[in-house]
Here is the input.
Amino acid sequence: MTDSNVTKELEKKLLSYITEEDPMLCMLQWITEKFMEIEVAHKVGAQKGKHSTERTTHLSGTRVRRFDTRMGTMYLTIPKLRKGGYVPFFVTAKKRSEQALIQIIQEAWVSGISTRKIERLARSMGIEQISASQVSEVSKELDVMVEEFRNRPLHAEYPILWIDALYEKIREGCHVENMAVLVVKGISLDGTAHILAVEPMQNESEQTYRILFRKLKDRGLERAWLCVSDAHKGLQAAVRKEFIGTSWQRCKVHFMRNILAYVGHRHKDAFAKQLKHIWLQPDEKQARAYAQSFMESYEKQFPDAVRCLEEGLEDSLQFYRFEKIDHRKIASTNTLERLNREIRRRSRVVGIFPNKASYIRLITSYLIEYEEEWQSGRAYISIQSLTEQKLQLEKVA
Here is the structure.
């Protein structure tokens, strides 16, 4: 066939696609089929249906393979060979773009985008019929990274630990349970912040916190200077038993809320404005003096609030022992509260998680990225402050 005839035949073929619903996709499918004919002929050593002394194998039927492209989804009829097997070169090359698509789906999922939205995202890229189960399967590829992060070895010493719990709806068997998710954030001796644990538990109790702390110790943690949390009794007991010699700081923000619960709405703002100055004093001595004066001023008007303050004051002043560290950073769990809000922002999109594994996968994947940002930024507490504080603690000991 002359070049002119080939050109006319090609024009005729391409013009036949004009009436198709998606001409470009049809042309692309035809081109891929021609590519396969040529590639298979070279691999076999002979054209289809022709004898040749150079033949190395024979055709053995076909198989259908779904092939997703930016133009849309095609279903290719791929020739099968008796020996050697055959995978079209453009399918092999496509694996890289498929991996890119998988990464996009993973990133979308980690960002809290629902499976329904991910399906729309895939369709906009020319990929049809990605189901919720397929998204879930893709996301499971994150499991290796997640497990490595959750079980990585820890430093022996973390100066500060912030501990808190948030509650999420997670399906367990046939029931949806409001599970306690225990979160631990720590500062290493170089001043950088780390997520040490995210553990869904059936409840928030001394036993579950002890299990959490033992897991941290199994991964290498031996000592913490200060644990900061709310006043959950089980958490306090677990800290005393699992981290002997560690100070416990009652979060001043949670403590203020507990105290203000005993103050009428009309007086709450004025009371709170003066109350917070207890923890803004330059040192522990002045903080105690101000607290004493404050309690004397309000003990008749708000006796229950003053009694609550008196009972918890000691535990709320422990941060003053660490003179070299910025007290604003260790007097409350605010840094962890901000992190918890980010977690909830992503978990809220899902609503009810199908199981604990799916929750851990999503939240840990997000927290890995969050921690990477911390590592590349400024230290949360300066190394100099931590070094000076360590020397001071060693002298006291």
Observations:
- The CA atoms of residues 214 and 242 lie 7 Å apart.
- The chain has three domains: 1-87, 94-150, 158-396.
- The mean pLDDT is 83.
